[in-house]
Amino acid sequence: MKQFLREAAAVKPDKRQLDWYDTEFYAFIHFGPNTFTDREWGDGQEDEAVFNPVGLDCGQWVETIKAAGMKGMVLTAKHHDGFCLWPSAYTEHSVKNSPLGRDVVREASEACRKGGIKFGFYLSPWDRNSKLYGTDAYNDYFCNQLTELLTQYGDIFYVWFDNACGEGPNGKKQRYDFERYIALIRKYQPNAVIFNDYGPDVRWCGNEAGTARHEEWAVVPRELCFYSRVQTGAGPLAKEGDLSFLYNTCQNLGTMNNIVYSQGLTFTPAEINMSIRPGWFWHPEEEPHSLERLFRTYLTSVGANCCFHLNLPPDTKGRIDQRDVGRLAELRALLDREFGKQISARVQKQQDSFPTQPVYEVTFDVPRNDFKYVVLREDIARGQRVESFQILAEAPDGSRFPFYQGTTVGNRKICPLQDPFAEQNPLTRSMAYGAKRLLVHVTSARDEVFMKSIEVY
Question: Pick the residue with more confidence: 434 or 394?
Answer without folding.
Answer: 394
